Amino acid sequence: MFVKDIEFTLKDGRKAVLRSPGDEDIQGVLDYLYVSSGETDFILRYPEECTKYTPEGEKALFDRMRTAENETMLVCLVDGKIAGNCDVRWSTMLKTRHRATVAIALLKEYWNLGIGTRMFEELIRIAEANKNITQMELDFIEGNTRARALYEKMGFRITGVKPNGIRLKDGTMLNEYMMVREVKR
Ligand SMILES: CC(C)(COP(=O)(O)OP(=O)(O)OC[C@H]1O[C@@H](n2cnc3c(N)ncnc32)[C@H](O)[C@@H]1OP(=O)(O)O)[C@@H](O)C(=O)NCCC(=O)NCCS
């Protein structure tokens, strides 16, 4: 699914753009994946695990995301720099095609500027445009108060917990929480 430029204004007055990624974004996305992985424990990868991401792999992913009917990715650019990305996807299987899964992450320098809110408005719009989808789902890691605040603001509620779903390198165990947002039509 292709999403063309959506311009909006950040809380600090700067302009930002949300859109489907293209070839010109490959290096920016690779940089963002690596840096963001070291800035928070609340995303699922460590920087050294980013070696699996390659320019060829990102190109193939972006191409797929632009054309697939059951998934899409958006990047946010601020002053031409990739600030983060988000995605929404859903199954095509009859028993589970009513469930859309979303994910989001931003570089730390862009937290708290309203990008997450604007991304979620768009992810919700995309999911609600598919008449099969009746609920949106996501997971967050224990302690991620900013993410939880955003998700609750956007209408998600906690529906379950995977105890010790995350184990950090230092051995710390953290719960993973599941959230659901029903689609109202
Ligand atoms: C979580 C994340 C995506 C949120 O995006 P964001 O652009 O910072 O979010 P927004 O600025 O749109 O909104 C954040 C909201 O949380 C509120 N908030 C921020 N910190 C908070 C805290 N510690 N406790 C409660 N609320 C908080 C803000 O006030 C804001 O609400 P408001 O718009 O009503 O004022 C972003 O911070 C991020 O990328 N974090 C690291 C990666 C991550 O955790 N990804 C999610 C994995 S599940």
Quick description:
The protein has helices at 26-39, 55-67, 115-128, 145-153, and strands at 6-9, 15-19, 71-78, 81-90, 99-106, 135-141, 157-167, 173-182. With 185 residues, the chain is of the alpha+beta class.
Describe the structure.
The chain has 185 residues and is α+β, with helices and mostly antiparallel strands. 27% of the residues lie in helices and 34% in strands. It has 4 helices and 8 strands; from the N terminus they run ββααβββαβαββ. The protein has helices at residues 26-39, 55-67, 115-128, 145-153, and strands at 6-9, 15-19, 71-78, 81-90, 99-106, 135-141, 157-167, 173-182. The mean pLDDT is 97. Residues 40, 42-43, 84, 104-106, 111-117, 140, 144-147, 149-150, 153 line the site of coenzyme A.
Question: What would you say the CATH architecture is?
Answer: 3-Layer(aba) Sandwich
What percent of residues adopt helix (DSSP H or I)? 25-40%
Uncertain segments:
none
Structural class determined from secondary elements: alpha+beta
The unique ligands bound to this protein are: coenzyme A
Shape descriptor: globular
Residue-averaged pLDDT: 97
* Tally of separate helices: 4
Strand fraction: 25-35%
